[in-house]
Amino acid sequence: MRPFPRPALSARAILDQDEEHPILLEGDFEEDWGDCQYLEPILHHGVYGEHTVELEVLSGQPGEAVPFYLMSLVIA
């Protein structure tokens, strides 16, 4: 049995207040055997400097509480 019901929630990431180009962070995977980790690059070979990331969890069904788990933001 899956620990969370399907479909899982998704989120969108807004980099540097650029709402015209959101990045979708999908929380639902085809695997049904356990957790799945996925890396989603949101800035690659960008300009060096300070950046902002805004996350918005996209709503599911009204009254439905489904966890959205964001493991980390990797900065390198």
Binned, the helix content reads under 10%
Counting DSSP E segments of at least 2 residues, the number of strands comes to 3
Order of helices and strands: EEE
How is the main sheet built? Answer: 3 strands, antiparallel
Shape: globular
Helix run count: 0
The chain-level mean pLDDT equals: 78
> Uncertain segments of ≥5 residues (pLDDT<50)?
none
> Reading side by side through the largest sheet, how are the strands ordered?
2-1-3
- Tell me the Rg in angstroms: 14 Å
What is the first-to-last residue Cα distance? 36 Å
Q: Strand content of the residues, in percent?
A: 15-25%
Summing up helix and strand content along with how strands pair, one would put the structural category as: mainly beta
Description of the molecule:
The chain has no helices and 3 strands. The protein has strands at 11-15, 23-25, 53-57. It has a 3-stranded antiparallel beta sheet, with no helix packed on it.
